[in-house]
Please model this.
Amino acid sequence: RHASVPTYTLNHLVKERYPRFQDALADMDDALTLTFLFSALPAERGIPAKVAQKAKSLAAAWGAYCATTCSITNAFVSVKGVYMEASVQTIPVRWVIPHSFRQHLPRDVDYRVMMTFFEFYETLLGFVLFKLYSDIGLRYPFPVKDFSGEIVGSASAILGANLRVLDSAFDSSKGSISKVVRKSLAQDSETSKHDNSKDAEEKSRKAKDIMKSIDSTLMKLSEENDEGDDDDDEDVDVAGPLKVALDEMAKEHNRAVVPGSKAELNDDALKRKGLFQGLTFFLSREVPRGYLELVCLAHGGRVGWEGENSPVTAQDSTITHHIVDRPSLPASYESLPKSREFVQPQWILDCANFMFLLPISRYTIGSPLPPHLSPWVDDEEEGYKPAYAEEIEKLKNGEKVESQIMEVGNVKATDEADQSKETTNPSGEAYASVSEDEAEEEEDEASDSKVTLKAKKKREREEKEAHELAKTMMSRKAAHLYGKMQHGLSQKKEKVDELHRRRQDIDGKEKDNSGKSVLKQKVERLKKERKDLEDSYEK
Model:
């Protein structure tokens, strides 16, 4: 019955709207957000199953590219979903991933309009993904046919299948040699691809040839060659040059997006790749796998999960961090190896946002989590920096960080102690009388402070008068704009003051490990200082 239905394509619309590839990348926010939304919706209320399946495939392909090229820069969990940001060819792309809950479709939404937008975004994503994967030397779309029974309408399953295809592509390209060695092994490049089928004698001979070629190439590249050395190859020490060559090969292999291709990671991506390098994460079954897997892989870590096709099992001794989102560890976890750390999922996101491996003491199972700070808020522009951000900054600078409660307690106690030192004891037994010289000095200091305070007030009054005079010289339009600016600044200052006040209230109510509040710590400290002072006078 659909034989007479006309067919059409939207390729020409994409080319007309985005004449440059950078324009298409800059407009990927809405396309990715709608695609990830359709990938989480059930196939009902007029949403065909093929549309949801196509959205899952596109979302997984985009995630696989971001994980491969280490493009994920920030991630933030909110009530609306998980905000993700990636730097693709120096262009920031931000989108929202819905939470993995059962989605209830409202009846007052016209899904046909949304599907019209998705039809255009599907074509756009097809062009963009083809170009991105072509730039790193991979074929798109992926030849994924079998998901090994893992796919049950899950976008994470398609993502895993795409990543397995990329891994196989990497394995097939690992036979290529770095540029340093390729200069001396150009004749053996074809035979090196079939090295696994060689016999033992040919392998040993080829290994010797590679060793000699590495040494000869490095000697050519070295700037400090000794021209007067003998030409006897037997006396040449290859240990040092070989180490340098292997380090250079490892560096090139680590920088290359796909080993053997011309595409390389930039400095920022290489730094992100080294954050979780050498770490292995295992996600418990209650932990959402999708965005956490993307963040871990994009920062150089290995990921395993409870399910089929997991590269790491729960009993693997190489697991360094076990991600658990429960109030307490179940009894079954006691049989696991003791070499791993059990942390909450927020630790991964905070480490990725601050590009620093944070201490896990505040992310242990059952402990209250620190605030999850947004990576897109400029603290300097807002005029307020959260306490946890200050703590992380000190950690990154190598400074010693004390508990926030004790710091606030010490500050308040010090202020109170200073005030108590200014008071005198009515009995006159514990405190000695002040000498006349000290009294005169105090009077001089007090008089100087009064003079300074008067001069400051006079200067402020003069500045205010000059300010009012300049304001009267403005035009009506300029005065109106200036008033709006001052009103906005005053509102911002009130907001910052309110944040500081709330922070002080929270710090005053918090308790340390012994269960004592900051105010109680202050009282005890003042009592102790007073007692020590009395004891010193009694002696």
